[in-house]
Amino acid sequence: MAGGLTSPPIRRSSPRWSLESDNVDQIDTARRSRQMWIEAAFVGPPLRTGRGGRRRATTAQMLNHGIAHELMDEVERVSKAHYANCREEKFKEFARRTLEAGEKGADVKGIDWESTFFVRHRPVSNLADLPDVDDHYSYCNQRQVMKQFASEIEKLSERVLDLLCENLGLEKGYLKKAFAGSNGPTFGTKVSSYPPCPRPDLVDGLRAHTDAGGIILLFQDDQVSGLQLLKDGEWVDVPPMRHAIVANIGDQLEVITNGRYKSVMHRVLTRPDGNRMSIASFYNPGADAVIFPAPALAAAEAERADAAAAAYPRFVFEDYMNLYVRHKFEAKEPRFEAMKSAAEVVHAAPIATA
């Protein structure tokens, strides 16, 4: 990987998603069958594959997902209050230094304009150890609110995985088992704020990337936009919708589904007004889970002439993450190729006989 991994060129125009257009899927789970729900959920024109299969770009907005609106409102309230009371002053100092450097000519495009903390839920929770949480909330228990919300999101993640299994013709529970490893999946939440930026031309809120893991469920601000997806070479806005959950597919599900569902490049833009809240929960494989295309899906592709060239690698999730943290903001395809090359080196190594 000398010289680093490279990304393909991207056109920079930014058409807005319209709720009346084919570019956005607005999913009301209460009014669709399970099969129709997952067929419609993930955006992007279907692409022909072997045996009549289809590939889709994979991001959706879910409505009537079963999570109480009152709980979501409480999560939003305590998250925004936590930023105002515990993180805003620290961010202001970071913002001052970043803008000062950028206005003096320094390249600050490698910096993300966000204030973030992470909560780990599985395999072992760190919620009780997080500093500042609860310090300013005598009127509520923020830890309990976040714990309840995480429980609901975890159940929804597993429901989505089973719906994907159903749509792909896999046995129920296959994807959950594929994620399990020896100690179950990893599951955590990234709580982010994207404060106003007086110079959106200098810095992005979060640079373009695909997510490394499995299924990502996002509860985003319904008043302040900024999230964009790369679709057909152009950036399109994901419109804020009240009480919606945005579902996104990560790199591991692309591999396991043998490309039937694709991870999507996305980014967050800065805005001169409004403080955007983002609560993203990641349901990922366990660290030692071995990731590879589901045999049933790989077999369905076997007749395609380019099947060998398009084959996805087999690897341990932790090994992929070690690569991902160094190349997160680059194209995913070179990461897949690097894992494939690493596996070939292992298989080609001589066997010790003494």
From TrEMBL:
It is an enzyme of class 1 (oxidoreductase). GO terms for molecular function: 1-aminocyclopropane-1-carboxylate oxidase activity; L-ascorbic acid binding; metal ion binding. Pathway: Alkene biosynthesis; ethylene biosynthesis via S-adenosyl-L-methionine; ethylene from S-adenosyl-L-methionine: step 2/2. InterPro entries: IPNS-like_FE2OG_OXY, IPNS-like_sf, Oxoglu/Fe-dep_dioxygenase_dom, Plant_2OG-oxidoreductases. Keywords: Ethylene biosynthesis, Fruit ripening, Iron, Metal-binding, Oxidoreductase, Vitamin C. Pfam families: 2OG-FeII_Oxy. SUPFAM superfamilies: Clavaminate synthase-like (SSF51197). The keyword Transferase does not apply. The keyword Metal-binding applies. Its EC number is 1.14.17.4. It catalyses: 1-aminocyclopropane-1-carboxylate + L-ascorbate + O2 = ethene + L-dehydroascorbate + hydrogen cyanide + CO2 + 2 H2O. Residues 185-285 form the Fe2OG dioxygenase domain. Its cofactor is Fe cation. It comes from the Eukaryota. One of its GO terms (biological process) is ethylene biosynthetic process. Belongs to the iron/ascorbate-dependent oxidoreductase family. This is 1-aminocyclopropane-1-carboxylate oxidase. It comes from Oryza glaberrima (African rice).
